[in-house]
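Run log, item B.
One chain of 71 residues. Sequence copied directly from the ordering sheet:
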Amino acid sequence: MRATLYLSVEVLNEARNAAVHLGGYPARMTLTKLAENALRAELERLKRLYNGGADFPERDEDLKGGRPIAA
């Protein structure tokens, strides 16, 4: 599945550097693999921290698009 995400220049640049550096044997890293691994690890951390380790419930609606609300 394809998704559009906005990342800071620093994070994206470091991720691209890592993917290129680790692209060969044995890691065979890609930017997609790096992003998916990072999201999986963060989701597991958030589930443990906020949801007793259980999966989050299915959403009833899609995420809203547009600019984020300022804090």
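Observations after the first pass:
- The chain has a mean pLDDT of 94.
- The two ends are 30 Å apart (CA to CA).
Flagged for discussion on Thursday.
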